[in-house]
Amino acid sequence: MTIDVKDPAPGLYPGVSEEIYFSIDAVNASTLKLMRRTPMHARHESLDPRDETAAQRAGTMNHCAVLEPARFANTYIPPLMDPDTEKPLPKRSNLQKAQWEQYRQDNSGKVIIEPADYKYAEDMQAAAWANPVWKEILTGEGHNEVVIIWIDPSTGLKCKARIDRLTTYKGWTVTADLKTTKDASPFWFARDCHTYGYHISAAHYLNGLEVLAPMERKHIILALEKKKPIGTATYQLTGTSLMQGMEECQKLIHLYAECEAKGEWPGYPVDVTPLELPAYAIKTDDWQDE
């Protein structure tokens, strides 16, 4: 099914690139999560998106390495290496320059990346595929990078999402979302879920799929640590957490619709606002000066 970027019809579109996805004018989870900051910030990001950073490019590559090893191998390559030094071949002599030119021609269309970055992607891939649950999710019948387009029934807004993987697991249809993290333990990754709004993303995905093809589904998060030994953990948001995501998602999309209808995208309050330290920083009765 081919997607019309200018006026995409509601539906499911597997294998859509990030570039095409970002060019589609519709409300996504990232925009809704920015609405938590202020509508002004969400609107600015929609109209003037930031250029892709080096970290984001690396994230795209690592995503590809984990979700689609074959495409990773056909898209990315390390530089031409010097067999004597085991380092990238210099480009000093005419012979070396000719070798580099031939290497580029032989690998036309591929992205040449630093050896350390290539090895890092391979290490993340190996850690992910060593997890038997992940392997079943990644190899089961399904599709990667599935773009979904739908009309939100409560606001009439056109919405979009790009799901890492839509597949089945243990008899359930599931959406699988790959997330990298510093710490994949339940305590710390739960904080990530709240900080980065993963529960809102999950709600947005499931809401869209429910509009397009109603059925009960599960949302699974694949948490992959960024540093060695690269631990992996598989999480499913509890009913309470997912319900909170649903409630926040609905509140935010209605706020977006209201701002769009009025043509007003307010920022922070202009009045003096009381500010209190977070709960964990508040002194308790047993706190004493040292």
Structure summarized in a few sentences:
Helix content is 45%, strand content 19%. By secondary structure, it is α+β, with helices and mostly antiparallel strands. It has a domain of 187 residues: Lambda Exonuclease, Chain A (Alpha-Beta Complex), CATH 3.90.320.
Question: What's the topology here?
Answer:
Blueprint: E1 11-13, H1 18-23, H2 29-35, H3 39-47, H4 54-67, H5 69-75, E2 76-77, E3 81-82, E4 87-88, H6 94-106, E5 111-112, H7 115-130, H8 132-139, E6 142-151, E7 158-169, E8 172-181, H9 186-196, H10 198-212, E9 218-225, E10 232-236, H11 239-262
Parallel strand pairs: 2-5, 8-9
Antiparallel strand pairs: 1-6, 3-4, 6-7, 7-8, 9-10
CA-CA gap between termini: 67 Å
Shape: globular
Order of H and E elements: EHHHHHEEEHEHHEEEHHEEH
Total helical elements: 11
Q: What is the CATH architecture term of the domain at 11-52 and 116-260? A: Alpha-Beta Complex
Give me the secondary-structure category.
alpha+beta
Proportion of residues in extended strands: 15-25%
Classify the helix fraction into a percent range: 40-55%
Please tally the β strands and state the result.
10
Sheet of most strands? 6 strands, mixed
Are there runs of 5+ residues with pLDDT below 50, and where? none
Mean pLDDT: 93
Instruction: Please give the order of strands in the largest beta sheet.
Output: 1-6-7-8-9-10
Radius of gyration: 22 Å
Text of the CATH class of the domain at 11-52 and 116-260: Alpha Beta
CATH topology (fold) name of the domain at 11-52 and 116-260: Lambda Exonuclease, Chain A
